[in-house]
Amino acid sequence: MANFNAHLVGGAVVSGFAASAMAYSTVYSLNEAIVLWVAGTIGGVLPDIDADSSVALSWIFTLLAFVAALVVLQFAPGQSLVTIWVLMLGIFVGVRFGIMQLFLRLTRHRGAYHSCVAAVFTALCVSYVSLRYLHQDEALAWALGGFVLLGFMTHLVLDECYAIDVVGARVKRSFGSAIKPFSLQAWWASLLFGGGSYLLWEALPSPAPFVDAVTTLIMQPSTWHFAWLG
Questions:
Q1: What proportions of the chain, in percent to the nearest 5, are helix, strand and coil?
Q2: pTM of this structure
Q3: Torsions phi, psi of 205, nearest 5?
Q4: CA nearest neighbour of 110 among 66, 158, 49
Q5: What pLDDT, in 10s, does the model give residues 113-155?
Q6: Where do transmembrane segments lie in this chain (predicted)?
Q7: What burial class does residue 159 get, using C-beta atoms within 10 Å of its C-beta: 0-12 exposed, 13-18 middle, 19+ buried?
Q8: Model confidence over 171-208: pLDDT tens digits?
């Protein structure tokens, strides 16, 4: 399997190209494209959140804890600064240590979370939270979910690529354990991911703004024109 650095770089490179394309469009600003790039990079290491011990696990939960703590600012208007600090600290500790330990007990590396259905569920969660709680517009909320999905799938593809030993002309035993539609061993978790994805999809507005932006970008001739060729 690919290591943390490979996933971090892979997610950053792939989402970087995609984010530059979004900035080239007329729908997303440069600042929004940078946020999308960060989302895709995070998505590139997110599947390793189920690792029992890894740099990715600590890094991801620390980042999630910071984000969760900052979200407090959205829901604590009018509170004293001390109250906000206490809430932020409590949420940070709860996510970084409490939820992380719970996640460790309930998951197995390369289990249900290393699957396509988990990738879709995670992306939809990001879009839903962005729209409903962070008050982003529909185009950006769907784009954030889309970039997390892009990074997530990049991670799974890299894991499969590392399972092929080109020099030794063999396929490692881990091949097929990463980029799978769902997990048969943890079918109940995959069922929850699938059901959750359906509910989130029904709760979200149409992804048309994001889809239209991507389609327009792909179809317009100027996207593929090489200036030095005249």
A1: 75, 5, 25
A2: 0.80
A3: -75, 175
A4: 49
A5: 888 999 999 999 999 989 988 888 999 999 999 999 999 999 9
A6: 33-49, 56-76, 82-104, 111-133, 139-158, 179-201
A7: buried
A8: 555 555 567 888 888 788 889 999 999 999 999 999 99
Q: CA dist 213 to 25, 203, 220, Å?
A: 7, 22, 11
At 76 the three-state DSSP class reads coil
Token couple for 163: 């399972």
What residue ranges do the domains of the chain occupy? 4-51+110-223, 53-108
94 Cβ neighbours under 8 A, 6+ residues apart: none
pLDDT for 15 beyond 90: yes
Q: How many CA atoms are closer than 13 Å to the CA of 2, on its beta-carbon side?
A: 22
Distance CA 221, CA 214 (A): 13
